[in-house]
Design a protein that fits this description.
The protein has 248 residues and is of the alpha+beta class. It has five helices and ten strands, in the order βαββαβββαβββααβ. Strands 1, 2, 3, 4, 5, 6, 7, 8, 9 and 10 form a ten-stranded mixed β-sheet that branches. α3 (141-151) crosses α4. The longest helix has 13 residues, at 31-43. It starts with a strand and ends with a strand.
Length: 248
């Protein structure tokens, strides 16, 4: 039995996230569903793809990692060529290789890096409209940077998730947040050990509200301590978010 590691790039616009939906008879289109369908036809086996994590509907990925096991004797190059030909045009295979049977794309992740892109120009960049969130009002990037520093470290991020219920821990570690601006395009790069449901989008929405002076920089600590979703900013739209890379 071989364990194969996939590196993928995908445009999440028409997908309901990475993970398959469990509803019986569901026609929901997901990245995992598309992958498993093509891989199963390729190998003649029922393939179960393990992803590095869920992504929300409409979120993109530049370097998504997944793995699957198979008894196929096809070479990695043959598989690569097959996937290039049969995957839809909005899912690209970047690499495929044999790895240790112990490799698990989700459990072995040490950190993830997401980038949220904002088009802060007066006019909407038509070539970036599917991959950036257009905000016409000028954002105060320096205030956003100041606020972002308060989010770095290990905190209870309950205020920054749509997760319901108290069963799972909401403590997470953010290693760094970089905010860069060039030609009116603002990128919020967030690296952390793991992220909860909608967490990066809510962090982005909160920083946007700081940039619009709707939330004060000094209020960030209080928002964290409140552990109350209603205190943080809004959930920024999914299409501006991209999973950039993973560290193992």
């Amino acid at each position: 039995m071989r364990n194969l590691k996939l590196t993928l790039q995908y445009d999440g616009t028409r997908y309901k996230g990475f993970q398959k939906q469990n509803q019986k008879g569901s026609n929901v289109v997901t990245i995992q569903g598309k992958l498993e369908n093509v891989l199963s036809k390729m190998t003649g086996e029922e393939i179960n793809v393990i992803g590095c994590g869920r992504t929300d509907s409409g979120v993109h990925a530049e370097n998504y990692i997944a793995n699957f096991t198979t008894n196929s004797i096809m070479t990695c190059y043959e598989m690569f060529k097959y996937l290039l030909e049969y995957l839809p045009e909005d899912i690209a295979i970047k690499s495929i290789k044999d790895v240790s049977e112990r490799f698990h794309s989700r459990y072995n992740v040490k950190s993830k890096t997401y980038v949220y892109t904002i088009d802060n120009n007066t006019y909407r960049n038509v070539f970036m409209k599917k991959y950036s969130y257009h905000i016409e009002d000028k954002l105060d990037v320096e205030k956003m940077k100041e606020a972002s520093k308060m989010l770095i470290g290990t905190h209870d991020f309950e205020s920054f998730t749509s997760l319901k219920g108290k069963k799972k821990s909401t403590i997470r570690t953010i290693n760094y947040i970089n905010i860069n601006e060039k030609d009116g395009m603002i990128e919020i790069e967030v690296n952390g050990n793991s992220f909860m449901l909608n967490m990066v989008r809510i962090l982005a929405g909160t920083l946007i509200e700081v940039g619009l002076d709707k939330i004060k920089v000094k209020d960030i600590n209080e928002i964290i301590e409140a552990k109350d979703r209603s205190r943080a900013g809004y959930r920024a739209p999914a299409h501006g978010l991209c999973l950039k890379e993973l560290q193992y």
